[in-house]
UniProtKB/TrEMBL annotation:
Protein known as: PAS domain-containing protein
UniProt keyword annotation of Repeat present: no
Lineage top rank: taxon: Bacteria
GO biological process: regulation of DNA-templated transcription
Pfam families to which the protein is assigned, alphabetical: GAF, GAF_3, HATPase_c_2, PAS, SpoIIE
Gene Ontology molecular-function annotations: phosphatase activity
Keywords for this protein: Hydrolase
Taxonomic classification: Bacteria, Bacillati, Actinomycetota, Actinomycetes, Kitasatosporales
Family matches, as PANTHER family: STAGE II SPORULATION PROTEIN E, STAGE II SPORULATION PROTEIN E-RELATED
Chain ranges of the PAS domain: 161-191
Naturally occurring in which organism (per UniProt): Streptomyces malaysiensis
SMART domains to which the protein is assigned, alphabetical: GAF (SM00065), PAS (SM00091), PP2C_SIG (SM00331)
UniProt-listed NCBIfam families: sensory_box
Length: 875
């Protein structure tokens, strides 16, 4: 049954992927489904990317909440783009690192169910995530594990089935039991099981094998004495049953203790509809007896209850539990009672703390007086604890943690208490490991969602400063309390502090001042986090000096602020500080510094996530650097192609407006120039190279410089253009044809101006007379860069006072909106309204008309050159 529904549509643009993730996250969190948010966000991100990026269509996203789970549908408008299938009908997605198809691969890995549906106009890809707290038909389950993490067993697992009657006598002994213990069935049937069982006489436990056989359900360890006299440790599961006549008996399943994973599972209390309340006894499972029922669902709750029960069981003053890191070289404090937990949480101690049996967390240990062996238990230094007992938590022989109970008085514990605590640790080790793996899987899925969004944010900008800010904001406070980024300009340069961020804004200035005073960390290209003590040492030294200086002033002269600021900075950087190299394209381009406040340490999972983030951030930062460098080079080269400062022409108003098409382009295929040739004579030009972009700009530079050089050598207009034509043809395959209007201008003493112009394939210049009439000021001639032999000629035009000469490129006349085009007639209509205007006003009105002609911005280069001879009253 559908209980809620939400839908949204996203346009085929890159930013829609982030918007879709936000929509799904907000929707599921609004429904209170935080357990499945991360998986849903990751899957939605991939599917929407396929739709809006790869398919290039609008994406419709629908979230549907039902009784059993959430279904998310992503539809695109490209139904003919089918999902690739193998010939045998099985799905084939290819390699997970390929550009496309990863969304389906993730659906297969993360979703409970998924599929593809086609309609005439849409393709729907959907996935369903079932609620984790409603495992229909599941009694117990664990996360999917790689083969290397699965428990080890013999190739042929033998399960001994032993049935014991109400009198405790063996009635059934199967072949596997005979293979395990060496007794044929006829030798043991009719004998008490207690004759074969070697029950562990562990102090503090009162249950024996005879009592266990009377319980409705029991699971645990004991030994069976074999035919050879040796005791084989077994793991057993007992179930009390009755036959059709009501006669009770107990079925015992036995496996070798090292293969306990075959039978071991968390117990559940019997439900009211299957067991009569009068027949149910108290909870008897060893795990539930120690932890209590129901057991906490979360790892932290389970660990906290474990240390509290361990302390109470041994009447201790404090208890703590540590979990091993992946390499089993360190133990991380995860729960404690009676100790400063805020300081100890996530602190690390080495597995091998010293030499000998009592220096290793892999073996039980009892310390009667810690004052006699200072530092034997690093975690208890300066806590007032005198005696301690510690035992390992092991699963399949692998160290997974350590449990300790401590007391303030010496000689409180002996080997007897160590055995009791070890028995309890054996009961909870597997449950703790399962909860730890579940938490790790949840964290890794959350990390995947975090990295997806981080990668999207980093890829969304090519601005260096913004990339630095994003790097810091993504780590604080998610991964660290404070962050600093050092950048390296080149191999010969020292690292430079580029960005500092603290979760408390009031600490940023003090932290930045501290880091500016100390040497940056050493550049190490190898990956991985490494410790850095520089900030801690410098901050505490500064705080000490400030405190001593404050004391030396005396109470009357002491500054009102005291050493507070220095102490606050020292506290902010007093915890663990790690350095992560920023390596891109096999070069160290910087360092990412992450820090914790006093006595806090990083979790291994967060360091691994930070390393992954640093690799992505390094590439984004290097991309921003390359983009900035190339943009600066491009802009410098483009500026070199633009004319220098425009000269003043006596007696003539000149206005130029230039617009290059394309973001970041200052020069394109259109160009202009105005320059002095000799005394009293000026050259002007406006041209258009075929195409836009850098290739066209190269020809632009050739043309502009050639015009100046040839004109100043004394060549007339036709000779200048003919030689330029030959130079363009000499470029060979790189040559491009060019339309060009070139002219020479001579201001006259009577207030007029004489122009000699050559129009080589360019839009004709328009002359606006003072009476409002408009006429072409030149005749069309062949363009440049096409034919080798050109015969050009120049025409003379006289501008009287009040006349305007307008020269434009085809970016003006070919301005389009749909099938409409401004054209020559449209330009003439605009120029008609310009009578009496200055040259600047004429150029501005033409530009405004071009911009208003269509809603979309111009897509072609555009140049406007207006020259006007002012009337006597104007001057």
């Amino acid at each position: 049954m559908i209980t809620a529904r939400a839908a949204a549509t996203f346009e085929p643009v890159g930013r829609s992927v982030a918007a879709a993730r936000t929509f799904v996250r907000d929707t599921l969190q609004g429904w209170g489904l935080t357990d499945i948010v991360d998986d849903a966000v990751v899957l939605t991100s991939e599917l929407v990317t396929n739709a809006v990026v790869h398919a290039g269509t609008t994406a419709d996203v629908v979230c549907i909440r039902a009784d059993t789970g959430v279904r998310v549908e992503v539809a695109d408008r490209y139904p003919e783009r089918e999902v690739p299938l193998q010939s045998n009908g099985g799905h084939h997605f290819g390699h997970p690192d390929r550009e496309g198809g990863r969304g389906l691969l993730l659906c297969a890995a993360l979703a409970t169910r998924w599929g593809v549906e086609y309609t005439a106009t849409h393709k729907h890809i959907w996935f369903q995530l079932d609620f984790p707290d409603r495992p229909a038909g599941t009694r117990a389950a664990g996360p999917a594990l790689p083969s290397s993490a699965l428990p080890i067993a013999d190739a042929r697992v033998r399960v001994g089935v032993v049935q014991v009657d109400s009198g405790g006598l063996i009635s059934v002994w199967n072949d596997d039991a005979q293979e395990l213990f060496g007794y044929p069935s006829e030798q043991v049937v009719g004998k008490p099981l207690t004759d074969l069982a070697a029950w562990p006489h562990t102090p503090g436990t009162s249950t024996g094998v005879a009592e266990a056989l009377q319980l409705s359900r029991w699971e645990g360890s004991y030994g069976i004495r074999g035919a050879d006299g040796r005791v084989s440790p077994v793991y057993a599961s007992h179930l009390r049953i009755r036959d059709a006549e009501g006669e009770p008996s107990t079925v015992c399943l036995l496996v070798r203790d090292r293969e306990r994973a075959v039978l071991q599972s968390p117990m559940r209390a019997a439900s009211a509809d299957t067991t009569d309340a009068a027949e149910r006894g108290p909870a008897t499972d060893a795990f539930e007896v120690f932890i209590g029922s129901p057991a906490p669902d979360d790892l932290d709750g389970l660990l906290q209850r474990t240390v509290e029960r361990a302390r109470d069981m041994l009447d201790g003053d404090a208890a703590y539990l540590l979990l091993a890191t992946d390499d089993e070289t360190e133990l991380e404090v995860r729960a404690s009672t009676g100790l400063p937990s805020a300081r100890q949480r996530f602190a690390r101690v080495p597995v091998e703390a010293g030499t000998g049996r009592y220096g290793s967390a892999r073996m039980p240990a009892v310390h009667e007086d810690l004052s006699a062996v200072p530092g034997a238990v690093p975690l208890l230094v300066n806590t007032g604890m005198r005696s301690v007992v510690t035992v390992p938590l092991k699963v399949e022989g692998r160290l997974t943690g350590s449990l300790g109970v401590a007391a303030e008085s010496p000689a409180r514990y002996s080997n007897e208490e160590a055995l009791r605590l070890q028995f309890a640790a054996d009961r909870i080790a597997l449950a703790v490991e399962r909860a730890r793996l579940t938490e790790l899987e949840r964290l890794r899925r959350g990390s995947l969602s975090f990295l997806v969004e981080a990668s999207d944010l980093l890829a969304g900008t090519l601005d260096r400063d913004q990339t630095l800010a994003l790097m810091a904001q993504m780590t604080v406070p998610t991964l660290a309390s404070w962050c600093a980024v050092y950048t390296v300009a080149d191999q010969a340069s020292d690292p430079e502090l580029s960005y500092v961020l603290h979760e408390d804004e009031d600490r940023i200035d003090g932290l930045k001042a501290l880091l500016m005073k100390i040497d940056p960390p050493e550049q190490v290209p190898t990956g991985g986090a490494r410790s850095w003590s520089g900030p801690y040492d410098a901050a505490h030294a500064a705080a000490l000096r400030t405190s001593l200086r404050s004391l030396s002033l005396g109470d009357s002269a002491r500054p009102s602020s005291g050493p507070g600021a220095s102490l606050a900075t020292a506290s902010a950087v007093g915890g663990e500080t790690v350095v992560l190299p920023l390596v891109a394209r096999n070069r160290v381009i910087g360092m990412l510094i992450l820090g914790k406040p006093t006595d806090e340490h990083f979790r291994q999972e967060n360091l691994e996530l930070a390393e992954d983030l640093s690799r992505r951030a390094a590439l984004a930062l290097d991309n921003a650097r390359l983009y900035s460098e190339r943009t600066a080079i491009s802009q410098s080269l483009q500026r070199s192609l633009l004319p220098p400062e425009q000269p003043e022409v006596p007696g003539v108003e000149v206005e130029v407006i230039y617009r290059a098409a394309g973001e970041g382009n200052e020069v394109g295929g259109d160009f202009y120039d105005l320059f002095p040739i000799r005394d009293g004579a000026y050259g002007f030009a406006i041209g258009d190279v075929c195409g836009t972009g850098p290739e066209a700009a190269a020809v632009t530079g050739l043309a502009r410089h050639a015009l100046r050089l040839l004109a100043r050598e004394g060549f007339g207009g036709p000779a200048v253009l003919e030689r330029l034509n030959a130079a363009i043809l000499d470029e060979g395959a790189r040559s491009r044809f060019l339309t060009l209007l070139y002219g020479e201008l001579w201001p006259q003493h009577d207030g007029s101006a004489v122009l000699k112009v050559v129009c080589a394939g360019h839009p004709l210049p328009l002359r606006l007379r003072q009476d409002g009439s408009i006429e072409a000021a030149a005749e069309p001639q062949p363009l440049l860069g096409v034919m080798e032999d050109l015969e050009l000629y120049e025409q003379t035009v006289t501008l009287d006072p009040g006349d305007v000469l307008l020269c434009v490129t085809d970016g003006v006349t070919e301005r389009r909106e749909g099938t409409r085009m401004l054209g020559d007639d449209g330009l003439i209509d605009v120029l008609t309204t310009c009578t009496g205007l200055t040259a600047g006003a004429v150029a501005a009105r033409v530009l405004r008309a071009v911009e208003r002609f269509a809603a979309e911005p111009p897509s072609d280069d555009m140049a406007i050159l207006a020259m006007r001879v002012p009337e006597p009253a104007d001057s």
